[in-house]
Amino acid sequence: MNFDDFLGSFREFLESSPALELDDGSRYVFISDLHMGDGGESDDLRNNRELATTSLARWYLDQGYTLILGGDIEDLQKFKLKRIRDAWPELYEAFDAFASRGKLWKLVGNHDLALLREKEQPYELHHGLALRRKGRTIFCFHGHQASRLFASYMYISDFVVRYLAKPLKIKNQSVSGDSRQRFKAERRIYRASKRLGLVSICGHTHRPLFESLSKYDSLRWSIEELLREYPASVGERRERIARLVELYRSECERLGRKELRWGLSKSLYEEKSLLIPCVFNSGCATGKHGMSAIELGGGSISLVHWAREGATRPYLLEEALLKDSFEGTPFSRFTLKQADLDYVFARIDLLGKD
C-alpha cells in the first residue's frame, strides 16, 4: 500500500468521523478486542469473563467514565450474533447501562464489521471517533484500516474465516498473531499520525503501545536507566537495581522469543533516533494474565492493566505506577504508564518536524 494513498484515506477517515470536545473533567476508557463468542472453549474472552464484566460494570460505570468500545467486541467471524448475545448477558447489561447514560461509543473492527448489516442493532455504530482538546485531536479507531488486506478484501476475509477456515479447522492467522503484519499496520498509523500531528488510540494488533513504545521497548529503556544509576548506587538501592535488571532482562528475553525480533525494535517505526509519542494501543481483553485499556482523564492519558490477584507477571508489580485493589473482588487495576496530554502534544510538535 502506497503511504501517500493511505495518508489520504486516513485524513478522509478522520474528517468523516464524529467529534467530541474533551475537557479535563471528563473521563474516557478505550477498550478493544474482547472477541466475545458463545461462551465455550473457542470463546477468546471466556477466561476473563468475570474480570471484563466487573471492571466495566463496577468500576468504569461507577467512576463516571464514557466507554469507547474500540472494535472486535463480538467475534462475528467465528460465531453468530444471537449465540454471542445469549452467552454474555451480564456484559451486554453493562453496555446498556453506559448507553442509557449517553456514555457509550461503539466502534467496529474487522471481526465485528458484519454488525453494520444487522437490521436490529441496539447501539449506534461508528468507524472512528475524534476527541478535540485545546485545538488538538485524539483519534480513536480500531486499526484494521491500516491493513491493506482488510481494507481491500474485508468481506472476502469474513467469508473465508466463517465458511471455510472454521469448518475445515484451518488456523486463522490474523494480524494480532503475525509480527510482520502487526508491525506494518502500526507503522502506517504511526507515520500518518505523525504527519497530521495527532494522537491515535487504536486496538487490532493486541499489542499495548504507549507513546509509540511497545512493552519490549519500554522495558529496554527502563533497563538502560537502571544501568546508568547502578554505578553510583549503594546498599539496598544497589541490590534492588540488580534484581530489577535481572527481572526486566528475563521479560525482554521472553518477548524476544515470542515474536520476530525485527518487529520489536522502535527504530523500525522511525529512521531518526527520537520516537514521536503519537500512537497508543489498548492491547486486548483476552490475555492470559488479564486485560488492558487506555484511559483519558484529568488532562492525562494512561495505560492500565486489570488482573486477578496472583496472576500478574512479576515485572508488572515493579513497573506499575499505581495499584488499585477492587474491594470485594479478586481483581486489581495497575496503572502502568501515564503522561500529561500537553506534554505528549509538545513532544509531537517539537520532535515531529521532518
Question: Care to describe what's here?
Answer:
Helix 2 packs parallel to helix 4 (89-100) and helix 7 packs antiparallel against helix 8 (235-258). The longest helix has 24 residues, at 235-258. The chain has helices spanning 3-16, 49-60, 81-87, 89-100, 148-165, 179-196, 215-229, 235-258, 314-319, 341-351; strands spanning 19-21, 27-31, 66-70, 104-107, 125-126, 128-133, 136-141, 199-202, 209-210, 213-214, 279-281, 291-297, 300-308, 322-325, 331-340. It folds into two domains: 3-212 and 269-351, Purple Acid Phosphatase, chain A, domain 2 (4-Layer Sandwich), CATH 3.60.21.10; 217-268, no CATH class. Residues 151-157, 159-173 and 260-268 have low confidence and may be disordered. It is an alpha/beta fold and 354 residues long. The strands form three sheets. The protein has an eight-stranded mixed sheet with strand order 5-4-3-2-12-13-15-14. The chain contains ten helices and 15 strands. Helix 2 (49-60) links the parallel strand 2 (27-31) and strand 3. The two termini are 22 Å apart.
